[in-house]
Specification:
Layout lengths: L2 H4 L24 H4 L2 H21 L5 H13 L2 E2 H8 L3 H13 L3 E5 L7 E5 L1 H21 L5 H22 L1
Antiparallel strand pairs: 1-3, 2-3
Helix pairs in contact: 3-7, 4-6, 4-7
């Protein structure tokens, strides 16, 4: 019997025995959803987030801890409330994240000499070294996550995502 004769009258080749697994991945999702950038961005973000969480988690830290170390590496010492704003964290949550990295000797908090009511947060030498180690692990995770894209495509993806984020920042500012 031919392949066509084995299928029922309304069956398509993709519906016949065991052939669904052979469909290209994009056919497994509704095409109308695949046409929505926000749908795509949400799913891709979830995949990338998992890669980041795994990379940072191997150090015993969580992504917010890495974010605090990275903010300090990029900006230098910051008042605690400024760091919360720049990272989009609630101040009370940031306090808990800082407690963890401070207990590990990665940051230190001191009184701001210009305003004694404020706490300044800065990286310790150990924190600088840990942020660099984590940064390498995170970059490797992103390289693996985006391995289907060549370097120019990765740069373009990052540029386009930044453009959307920057526009939102300007609208909020």
């Amino acid at each position: 019997m031919s392949d066509t004769e084995q299928r029922g009258p309304g069956d398509t080749p993709s519906e016949s025995a065991g052939e669904k697994e052979d469909l290209p991945p994009q056919a497994l999702r509704p095409p109308s959803l695949l046409a929505l950038p926000s749908y795509l961005a949400g799913h891709v973000a979830r995949l990338g987030h998992e890669a980041l969480v795994d990379a940072v988690g191997r150090s015993g830290l969580r992504l917010p801890h890495f974010a605090t170390l990275t903010a300090l590496a990029d900006f230098g010492p910051l008042p605690q409330h400024v760091m919360a704003e720049r990272l989009g964290f609630q101040r009370s949550h940031l306090g808990g994240y800082l407690d963890t990295v401070e207990e590990r000797g990665l940051v230190r908090r001191t009184r701001d000499r210009a305003d004694r009511r404020r706490q300044l947060v800065e990286l310790t030498d150990e924190g600088t070294a840990e942020q660099r180690r984590l940064g390498e692990a995170v970059r490797a995770s992103q390289d693996a996550f985006l391995s289907c894209l060549d370097p120019d495509e990765r740069r373009m993806l990052t540029l386009l995502l930044r453009r959307v984020l920057d526009a939102d920042d300007r609208a909020d500012g």
